[in-house]
Amino acid sequence: MIPSDAPGAPGSRPVLLSDYRAPAWRIEHVELACDLDIDASEIRARLALRRNGAGAAPLRLDGEGLALRSINLDGRALEPGEYMLDAEGLTVPGARDGSVLETVVRVEPAKNTALEGLYLSGPRETGFLLTQCEAQGFRRITYCLDRPDVLARYTVTLRADRARFPVLLANGNPDGAGALPDGRHWARFVDPHPKPSYLFALVAGRLEHIERDYVTAEGRAVKLRIFAEADAIGRCGYALDALERAMRWDERVYGRNYDLDVFHIVATHDFNMGAMENKGLNIFNAKYLLADPDATTDDEYRQIEAVVAHEYFHNWTGNRVTCRDWFQLSLKEGLTVFREQSFSADMGSPALKRIEDVSTLRRAQFPEDAGPLAHAVRPAQYCEINNFYTATVYEKGAELVRMLAGRLGADGFRRGTDLYFARHDGQAVTVEDFLKALGDANGLDLMPYLDWYRQAGTPRVRAREVYDAATRSYALTLGQHTPPTPGQAQKRPLPIPLRVALFARDGRLLPLRLEGEAAAAGEERVLELTAAEQTFRFVDVPEPPLPSLLRGFSAPVIVESDEAPADLAFRLRHESDGYNRWDAGQRLAQLAFDAALRGGPGTALVAWCEALAALFDDAALDAALLAELLTPPSAVELGERCAELDPDAVHEARETLENSLAARLGAALEPRYRALHAQADGTLDAAAQARRRLKRRVLDLLCRHDPARGHASARLQFDGAHGMTDRLAALAALVRSGAREAGDALARYRRRYDGNALALDKWFALQAQVPAATALQRVQALMRDPAFTLRNPNRVYALLRSYAQGNPVGFHRADGAAYFWLVERLRELDAINPSVAARLATAFNGWRRLEPVRRRQAQQALAALAADAPRLSRDLADILERTLA
Ligand code: PHE
Ligand code: ZN
Description:
Mean pLDDT: 97
Cofactor: Zn(2+)
Largest sheet: 8 strands, mixed
Strand order of the largest sheet: 6-5-9-3-2-12-15-14
Radius of gyration: 28 Å
Bound molecules: phenylalanine, zinc ion
Number of strands: 31
Helix content: 40-55%
Shape: globular
GO biological process, one term: proteolysis
Organism: Mizugakiibacter sediminis
GO molecular function, one term: zinc ion binding
Distance between the termini: 30 Å
Strand content: 15-25%
Structural class: alpha+beta
């Protein structure tokens, strides 16, 4: 492992946005020559330096875990006294404007288990070398100005043994290759686009590839290539198709064309995150690239398409226009997630996509916003930037862009992004620059939206209504408040666009005319709530209407309303828009849950079940949407409703919902299941996917209603499945419903997919999530499976994170055993891979809201680990410190 020289969080100073200063030096050109090998690689760097501005600051370069072999300034070797080395970098007082600094360093890829910098993927005999630089990995490769506002042109020469490393790749266009003595060879790449160091990448090893010719709308011929190890190359075709779709879409929708002669993607099984947008050389976690019908589920196919698009879209939103500093991370991530979401919506069903995105936000981001790790989309400070690749920066950031896009309309938003690209191409910019460009292109001041980027916490919007029959007017009073978050006690009102409609009792939408307007303006409109409270008065309203607020989830807020179960049931039946219909059902399910938790009357539960029973028979309803409607909110979301959280009680109450629904649908389940199963095939078209999605849900309900038939059906489905979606759904149904057949099916799956890492991850994850008091023993047993290792992030996430974050009942044991157990795993993992350890530690996010017994246990476990902070990585120590604060 590259030694982590940074001290743990206590004592390590936070980086402040307000401390930002433009760099004192620039680098015009970076020339790298890399002699690559598994145990030791030698990196020779030649930096053409420029002073930036008039200051006299000495040259200071970042570098971590590097063994310096030689250092030359303007052609002369420096004496020891002419440069200063410390754990975080190198100072060269003699450097002048126009100087050229040459360093040679040695790094040890095989020892790098943190997977940042240059590392080995796979076994040392067969694996390959690759890099990961975002956010601050380049400093583990060479001494440099490792900050995103230093943009340089790169020329990279790679040299290695030809037999061991036949493929050599770096960013930019290929610029020659050839043989060297002793069986070695070289390859050179020139990247004409200046870029920050975090976008640097190289790859070397035995890789196969597939390729396709592509011509951009502007007429540039591009070779698209995907590289993977021999056993994986047959699974890259789907990703290549997705890439082409993404490239065409970006040309059509944003007018963005690709800008190099090659676009390369490489797949690895050893990756901390999903994928990385290195210029012209994207590197992907295999999980988001490899697909084949036998091992990939429908959900995964969609994810792969989305991540391929996401990384490609970064070429403009992130690479051509990059971030000034890491506080601006959402400038590229929020915008790129928004672009990716829009693309996926266009490729499939917009309503379903919106439902998925909102439920992700509620499951992952709302809890973050409500807990000790809450932070703004653009935080004002950080100790460890790795810990800010969060749902808030990504998903909430995307919602902010969506709000802006909604405010401007499609044409206005396109004018805005056109100006943003034209004005800032080749620059490192801020969220303010983005808002300014969007505003300038439309003659608007969007700066009030900056508060959304600066203020953490999920705003609550409350609605009160008064209908006056005498004047036929309807007054909607909207109030907002945002609960305090760590370091931000006071919150300001935000500009909140609320898309609303009013239903008449017969299910039709009423025309909307606000007081003072000459005529009604449509049946749906956006109300801009900008103050703490505002009243909107509609006139010509013939009857007391039923309001439909926050249509399409027009802002990332929680609407608190007293809508009665009967009204929610009405909207669940009648809303024309898929998202709103789903949301009405979710609200109704929440009311049913609240009542079940208190042991109160089941009015909402009955209303929910009756409405769903009616929709179950509605032949016009899309099968995938029905599957979503039939699914109550997750235990995590429901737990967010409790002031004091008892995960067992949440689970029981949620079970009441599930069982009641299963009982209500009763005899209708089996025929529906059989009808869906009769149409089973392995095709990937939307209708087939939708049927499988509904079938999975119906099978789960059937297993509750009639376990004997349910288990028999699941067993048959498992044995005869046409693809992974059906196979995994059947296996999950058997395992989760405690079927007698479960053990045997698990064993058969394990054998069938032995050696298929991605399929085994699903096997680990499924078992880790079974809600049972015995979950910990099960997870401990699975850790002894020969396929388990703490060294592979995907495996750690599949087993440990699925358990700690996806199994509230199993993890939050009242005796605290799982907390103490996880803390020990965090210790081990931290020594291997700090950023993965830190991510896993966020499982403790909600500890303060736990009921007192569990809370005490969690606190003790956390405190024991925090006491060791000086021996922990900065990543883990930072999470612990904030979690306990
Ligand atoms: N920038 C990557 C993305 O969003 C995520 C990432 C961050 C990957 C840090 C690796 C390290 O696509
Ligand atoms: Zn991204």
